[in-house]
Write a structure and sequence with these properties.
Elements lengths: L6 E3 L7 H6 L4 E4 L17 H10 L3 E5 L4 H11 L3 E2 L7 H11 L6 E5 L2 H11 L2 E5 L8 H17 L4
Parallel strand pairs: 1-6, 2-3, 2-5, 3-4, 5-6
């Protein structure tokens, strides 16, 4: 079940401390593109800063994990006040394992939050962190994204999720 997320939600602000407690999640690795902003966007999703504050007030540790370059992620992470890992190489284990170590938690107590099954969910499941799949903020235009999203639709149907 490498492609099945543990949790499926619409948006990042739907994640609550109560939900994370239910799954014994103490830390989150956060994707950027189509999770906290549109793909390569700079506008934060509505309510993001308030959500970050609530998570931190609840004792949830947060860190950005992105496949994007440092040049893109460093300013974004600074703007939201979170540490980050750029060039995370998702779905390969490297970025996830670095993130888990930096957060100081066991894998079973960490979740990856992202919008893609073939990067965020696949990689998270492969390394043993929980996976929270979000509906993308805005669908991308590139052919590779279109192909992946088409394949994801089949998995959504298989797992009983609505797209």
């Amino acid at each position: 079940m490498l492609f099945k997320p543990d949790i499926k939600l619409c948006g990042i602000t739907d994640i609550t401390a109560q939900l994370l407690n239910k799954y014994n999640i103490k830390a989150l690795l956060l994707d950027v593109d189509n999770t906290m902003s549109t793909h390569h966007g700079t506008v934060l999703t509505a309510g993001l800063m308030e959500w970050i504050a609530k998570m931190q007030d609840s004792g949830i540790k947060l860190m950005v994990l992105s496949n994007s370059k440092r040049k893109r992620i460093a300013p974004f992470a600074a703007r939201i006040g979170l540490p980050f890992i750029s060039l995370g190489c998702k779905p390969l284990p490297t970025g996830y394992l670095r993130g888990v170590k930096a957060l100081g938690e066991k894998r079973k107590n960490v979740a990856i939050v992202g919008d893609q099954i073939f990067t965020d969910v696949l990689g998270g499941n492969a390394v043993g962190v929980k996976t929270i799949l979000l509906t993308p903020i805005k669908l991308e235009d590139g052919w590779s994204f279109k192909l992946r999203r088409k394949l994801e639709k089949r998995l959504y149907k298989k797992y009983g999720f609505e797209k």
